[in-house]
Amino acid sequence: MSAMEKNVQDLIHKLEQTALKTEFSGVISLFEDTGSLYNKAFGYRDVKNKLPNTTNTRFGIASGTKVFTALGIGKLIDQGVISLGTTIREIDQKYVTFIDEYATIQHLLTHTSGIYDYYDEEIHQDVDNFFVEIPWCELETPSDYYPLFKNKVMKFHPGERFSYSNGGYVFLGMLIEKLSGMLYRNFVQEHVLKAADMPNSGFYAFNDLPEDTAIGYLEDRKTTNIYHLPIRGGGDGGMYTTTEDLCSFWHKLFSNKILSRELTAIYLNTHWTFNDTDGYGCGIYKRIDNSMFSIVGGDAGVGFYSSYLVQEQLTINILSNITDGENAIRDIVIDFFSNG
């Protein structure tokens, strides 16, 4: 057994012990590019009916959706419809009264646009108790969110700073619908998920979930999240996926099968640095030395973390159907690959 193999086995042991200790509900997986090292389900996808999670269960990934929105925009860039430097006002003049004239697609992708955020995580931190003026059941597409943004004041000038923006990614979803003439979810399904070979992923309505899809639960592990999130995801969150589909996503992304080689490199470049080691690309967190890339998400009834370690060609996925359910497992992964 090589040193790397022993390290991975040690990590798996820690993950499994923590999962059992914390009564983790979800799936934990480690995949090499050549196959599965570990893929195990815990807990229930449906608590009331005692239906267990399986390794094929679909889970909501909350803000993990953002990278797929970013890739949808990337498809439009590769098609020559827009560029990273295209301003929001160039696409639709109805935004002229409340969007800074210099705010661009790149600003939205990198959370540096400064536009109003309907779900500003610098203000709202309790995901189990967040609501908006529009009933969740009426939010089916990104365009349905438009009244939440109209005539709201910018937070800051574009490019001035990084401020994680759910609203910015809903806006990107709106722009995909405007530019493509398709519903956001259909465009991402057709142009991104197919290219990433993710057949068991998509945007499903809460009242019409496919079989073997996890119901989300709040921290009490009894109350479902059906009244706490939009009925269908759009732009900033709400996609469902599986561990195997995520493995395929990372492989296709780094093989330049989703976007062109040139645009993939731009997306994976560091566009904002948080500290000496960590930064942000376009819809994706990363180590500045390009050793590790991550997508994360947390909502009412959703806990999600997925990373790809480039040198090791290793994918690590943590999908949970409990609010913050991934935290303890994720912390072990981050500590392991930060400190060895």
From TrEMBL:
Keywords: Membrane. It holds the Pfam family Beta-lactamase. Residues 27-326 form the Beta-lactamase-related domain. Its main location: membrane. The keyword Transmembrane helix does not apply. The keyword Calcium does not apply. It comes from the Bacteria. It is found in: Membrane. One of its GO terms (cellular component) is membrane. PANTHER family: D-ALANYL-D-ALANINE-CARBOXYPEPTIDASE/ENDOPEPTIDASE AMPH (PTHR46825), PENICILLIN-BINDING PROTEIN 4 (PTHR46825:SF11). This is Beta-lactamase. It comes from Vecturithrix granuli.
